[in-house]
Each structure stands twice: as C-alpha cells, then as structure tokens.
Write a structure and sequence with these properties.
Strand content: 15-25%
Radius of gyration: 29 Å
Number of strands: 22
Number of helices: 23
Strand order of the largest sheet: 2-11-10-3-9
Distance between the termini: 40 Å
Structural class: alpha+beta
Oligomer: single chain
Mean pLDDT: 86
Helix content: 25-40%
Shape: globular
C-alpha cells in the first residue's frame, strides 16, 4: 500500500511538471510565432520540446489536442491582412538532433525504396510564405499562420524582388519558400533606427516577420526582404511534372528566374551527412541566418510512405545544429555605468569572431557574481555563444589565468567611490552627476516609456551633454533659449528639425504626471508602478512628502521601492530640480480621479482581440475607473479576460488556466450597477 501511494504521489508531481512545461513552451511559442520575439535560443526551446515529447511517450493518455507537440505554429494575425485557409496545409518539419537519428531515418527510407535520393538544403531562419500562381500569374501570397490558415500578404509579397510576378508554368502552381532578411539589410535598418533614436531590432528573423506583416507595402519594400523558394506545394495540368522529383522541379523553376534554396542531391547516408557538415561549416559565411539543414526525399511520391504525424510534412526531416560557439581570448573587461548607476561588465576579445552570421568583438558578463562563478579574468580563453542567438555571452572558461577579475573601487567615469547594493550583487555609482549615468538617464527621461519626446533620441542627448547644454532633465526644458545656437551648430539638424524637437519638448510639459515620475528613473519605479502610485496622490509634491509607511500601503509597492522613493525626494538637489521643472511649466498634478464605481474592485482583467465598440485603451480606462486593474498578459492572477474578435493566444491561455472569459457586453453589464460583484462572473 505504501509503495502504491508513493507511485501515485510521484505520478501527480510529474503531471504537474508536465502541465507547467506545456505552459512554458506555449509562452515561448507565442513569443516566437505571434509576437516576433524570443527570450531563449532555438536550442533551449528544442530541448524543452524533446523533454515534453519524452513525457508524452511515457504517458500517452495525457496528450490533448492543445499540447504544443500537436500544434504547427502561431495564430494567424489579422492586422496584416485577411486570414485565408491554405490550399495545401503549411506544416512543420520534424527536427532531429543527432547524426545517428539522420542515418536511422535514411535507412528506413532505403529499406522501402532502395532507389530513394535525398535533397539537402539550407534551413533558413525566417518566415514561411506560399505563393499561388494561376496560368503563370501570381494571384495570392500567404503566411503559414497556424498551418491550416494564414494571412493574405499578397501586396507585401509583390514588393519583394525575389518573388516572381509571373512564371512560365501553366495551370495551377503553388510554391512555398522562406522570407528572410539579409545581415546587410538588418544592419542597415538598425543603423537607421539608432540615428533616429529608436530601438533597434533584436535579430533578422523577428524583423523579417514584422516587416512581412506590415500594413504598408512601402515599408516592406524599403526594408529589403528576400525569399528562397524551397518546395513545390502543388502543381496541376501541364505543370504536374514539377511534383515528380523535388530538385528537378527546383532546377526548372531556377531556370525561369525563380530564386530557389541552395540544395544538393545525395544518394547515400554518407553523402547526406557530408552535405550537412558542409552547410554547418560555412553557416557563419552566409548572407542570412540558418538554423539547420533540411533533408527531403527526392521522389515526391515516396514521401507519403513516411508520415511523421499531423504536425509534420511527410518525407522531410531537419537536422538542427547545436548552438554555434567560438573560443575567444578576453583581452579586457570593460566596465560601464548603466542608467541607474549600476556597473555593467563586458568582455572585449583580442580578435573578433563570427557567430550566427555577425562579427562579434564583445560579450556580456552580467555582474561580478557571474564573473566569479566562471573564473573570468583578462587574458583567459573562453567559449562565446549567442544566447537566444541574439546576445553574445561567455558560457565557460577553457584556459584560466589562475586569477579572477576584481571589480574597480571607483567609478571609471567620474571617479566616485562605488558602493555594493545591499542583498544584491550589484555595484553602484550613486553620484547623480556622473556623466555616463546622466546621458542614459536623460535618454530614458525623453524615451517612449517616460516623457515620450518625439525624435529626441539618445544621439541628440549625448551631443547636448557633451557640449554642455544638458546637466539634468530640467535643462531639456531650457533648450528653447538656445534655439538659434542649436540651429547654427546643427546639433539637432537644421531649422525645421530643431523646431520640431523643441515643439515636442514643449508639448511634453502637459503629459500625465505618471510619465514624469517614470522619467525620474527612481530605482524600482517603472512605467506600470508609476501609474499605480500616482493614483494615490494629487501631485508629485504630495508623493514627495509621503512616508515609507504610507507608500507601502499602495498595492505592489514594497519596502525597498518605498525607501528608494523617499531617498530620491529627500535629496536636496532632486527637490530643487522638481521645483524648477514646475516653474518651467511641467505638469506636476495628477488628473482628477474619475472613478465611477467599484463594480470591478479587486479584479485583475485582461482585454484582447477587437471589441465591438470599445478600443483597448478605452476599455482599459473604463476598467481602471471602476476599481479594476488592467494588465497586458494572462496569468494565474488574472480574474477575467474580456475577449473580442480574433482573441488569439491570450484566449487560449485563459482557457488553459481556467480564467473566466466574458464579452464586451458582459463587461458593460457589470458596470451598470455598483452592486455588481465579482462573484457574479468569477
């Protein structure tokens, strides 16, 4: 009996872990497919999927239709066009992670079809798109979406130079390929973003995905997307022969001017492995990112004999390369100062290395705990990898110097003594006049999350600090006094651009006071917390006189945050700057409280999809004015999800977590009377 009980407990714990793993993978799928971003590398994601598959193999009864292993991709997004059902499902390719698995798959194919051949191709890291041609004319372009339906992006596809508007093949032909962004185009985009003071893109894949989903084809055209065709999805009539042999079909299309994926035709497992190795050895030299090599059965008719489940294309596999790593010699540990005064550490290499298609000379070292744990010092040799295939990081030391790098005792910028923040590994420069800290603080003050001064980016801030115009955030509102000087020197461009920025600065004076509080860059006070805090005070001066105890009464404000706020406003220089900002006309007063009732008091609510009559911002304001808290993501703490048309992944997650889902009409019904209670709908 005891043994059975133990097994039951272990089974329950494993089921809980299984459900937790599913939710984690769902979140990363949503980030990758629907939000065009990622927090982990492909390798880390693949390892989680392998673990999930292993659990499901052991417990097949646990598998449901909503498991990540049963899904193809993301949700079809409406904002880039009309959703459309695929003529041929756009399925994924089964991933393999060892050469042994590749050999086993080839052997299985050869057993049934000894004459089978294989095409080995680049697995380009981009966004899949299908092209439909009728009588040789392009009629439709569609993204993969969820594999069954995708988005109509025909107008955007027409401005991609690699997309042929006509082909010579007749009747119906459907081609599938990968839309991508070259390293050159990606770097040009980020250079332009930085010159405009805007946030750069994280990686080429995410930028390509967002660009293809743009509503304006002009933007798609100027960003320089490219495309490789890698498959003939369907062909009828006089073009039906394109569906006989895979590489023969690609070669015929290439002869017509269609840009097709690089491919090699192989007869044996040895030739396939050699082709895979060749692609891997040169992956750093391609003009685009790849995340593997695809192996396809050449004879298309043979493919249906080797299905891999409803999620995957039959007769295809993808060999996934391990994360690309390079050994480097760390010549110097560079110390910088962040916006809040925290020391930042980067390794500068003796020589640059190529990683994931880009030249890398530096890697993040995070903090001193990280440096100590790896035994990093100047002169050591170490392995560098791109975490999430985006940010270069040191993962291990291969040749130690026998010593560990020691942090400086004084700020490398201003010379002020550094302090260790209590209960953390952070080392700080608490000199508010530190030039490095000043530049970052002012750029943050003017940025989108704070005062949102249009076109006034970090490049202008740096120049104005260097030339002595800016010593603190209040000086931004004194720049109009130097208008003629600024135009003459061309610091912010010519007359028209300078006047445009000065007008944006003047307009920002009327911003909601929560934006100003955000811009002050008080430690632990971000955009969301600033908004919540100012709900409890009539002005910034009222907040400045609040005690730690009073601040801790505010939801989500803990002891450390309360002390940071009090410490900031207790500083004489900060108090003086606040008064000067008020004298220059910067708004210090909170908007009148417009709370209409308490129908939603204590409820955390998420709004998603397109509502019949309310915009999302309008719905959020309505919820908050009636005592509710409106957040942007669904979690276990969410009480209600207000779902409209095309609700997408948030609706799916709410259903998985058992969160109550209501319509706009039900939300408005709740607000009709203050007597409505959360129990009615929750």
């Amino acid at each position: 009996m005891i043994e059975n009980k133990t097994n039951t407990v272990e089974n329950v714990n494993e089921k809980e872990y299984y459900e937790s793993l599913k939710q984690t993978i769902e979140r990363h799928m949503d980030l990758y497919y629907n939000q065009n971003t990622n927090e982990i590398s492909d390798y880390e994601y693949d390892q989680m999927m392998l673990e999930l598959k292993a659990i499901e193999k052991e417990h097949p009864k646990w598998v449901t239709e909503d498991s990540p292993t049963q899904k193809i991709g993301g949700t079809a997004k409406r904002e880039a066009g009309v959703t459309i059902a695929h003529h041929v499902p756009m399925l994924s390719i089964q991933d393999l992670f060892s050469k042994e698995e590749v050999i086993a798959w080839i052997s299985k194919v050869k057993e049934l079809h000894p004459d089978a051949q294989f095409s080995v191709e680049h697995k380009i890291d981009g966004l899949s798109m299908s092209l439909r041609y009728q009588d040789g004319v392009l009629t439709l372009a569609e993204t993969r979406g969820n594999g069954i339906e995708g988005e109509d992006v025909t107008l955007n596809a027409r401005v991609i130079p690699d997309v042929r508007q006509t082909i010579t093949s007749g009747d119906y032909v459907e081609l599938r390929g990968e839309v991508y962004m070259s390293h050159e185009a990606f770097e040009a985009f980020n250079e332009k973003q930085e010159s405009l003071g805007k946030k750069p893109a994280a990686n080429p894949r995410n930028l390509a995905t967002g660009t293809l989903r743009q509503l304006d084809p002009k933007i798609t055209k100027e960003r320089g997307l490219r495309m490789f065709v890698f498959n003939v999805q369907d062909a009828t009539g006089e073009s039906a022969h394109l569906m006989d042999r895979h590489t023969a079909g690609l070669d015929e299309l290439a002869a017509q001017g269609v840009i097709v994926v690089p491919h090699v035709l192989c007869d044996t497992a040895e030739e396939v492995l050699a082709a895979i190795d060749d692609i891997g050895e040169h992956r750093g030299n391609y003009a685009y990112d790849i995340d593997g090599a695809v192996v396809k059965i050449e004879q298309i008719a043979y493919r249906e004999d080797f299905p891999a489940g409803s999620k995957y294309s039959a007769g295809h596999i993808a060999y996934k390369y391990p994360p690309e790593e390079k050994e480097v010699e760390i010549e110097e540990v560079e110390v910088g100062v962040g916006r809040t005064g925290k020391m930042t550490f980067r390794a500068r290499f003796k020589d640059p290395v190529r990683l994931c298609g880009t030249s890398v000379l530096r890697a993040t070292l995070h903090n001193m705990d990280y440096i100590r744990s790896l035994g990093i010092d100047e002169g050591c040799k170490a392995i560098c990898r791109k975490q999430g295939e985006i940010i270069p990081a040191i993962v291990r030391v291969t040749k130690s110097t026998g010593t560990i790098y020691q942090a400086p005792e004084n700020c490398p910028i201003c010379g002020h003594p550094l302090v260790q923040e209590e209960d953390t590994c952070d080392i700080l420069c608490d000199n508010p006049s530190c030039p490095a800290q000043l530049k970052r603080t002012l750029a943050y003050f003017a940025g989108r999350d704070a005062m949102d001064i249009k076109a006034f980016g970090s490049t202008y801030v740096d120049m104005l600090v260097d030339k002595g115009y800016l010593h603190n955030y209040v000086d931004i509102y004194r720049l109009n006094r130097y208008r003629d000087e600024l135009v003459e020197q061309g610091i912010m461009g010519k007359e028209k651009n300078t006047d445009k920025i000065l007008a944006a600065i003047e307009a920002s004076k009327q911003n909601d006071v929560a934006k100003l509080l955000t811009g002050l860059a008080i430690r632990n006070v971000g955009k969301a917390s600033a908004k919540e805090i100012m709900k409890h005070f009539d002005s910034l001066f009222d907040l400045a006189s609040a005690t730690v105890e009073q601040l801790q009464e505010i939801p989500d404000v803990g002891g450390i945050t309360a002390e940071c706020i009090c410490h900031y406003f207790a500083d004489e220089e900060n108090a003086k700057l606040l008064t000067e900002a008020q004298q220059l006309g910067v708004n210090m007063t909170a908007a009148p409280k417009t709370k209409q009732g308490s129908a939603l008091a204590g409820l955390t609510i998420v709004v998603t999809g397109t509502l019949p009559t309310l915009g999302r911002k309008e719905a959020a304001e309505l919820i908050e004015s009636n005592g509710g808290k409106c957040t942007g993501s669904v979690s276990k703490k969410t009480d209600l999800l207000v779902a409209g048309e095309a609700a997408g992944s948030k609706l799916t997650k709410a259903q998985e977590l058992g969160v109550k889902v209501i319509s706009e009409a039900e939300l408005l019904e709740m607000l009709q009377s203050d007597r409505a209670s959360k129990q009615r709908y929750y």
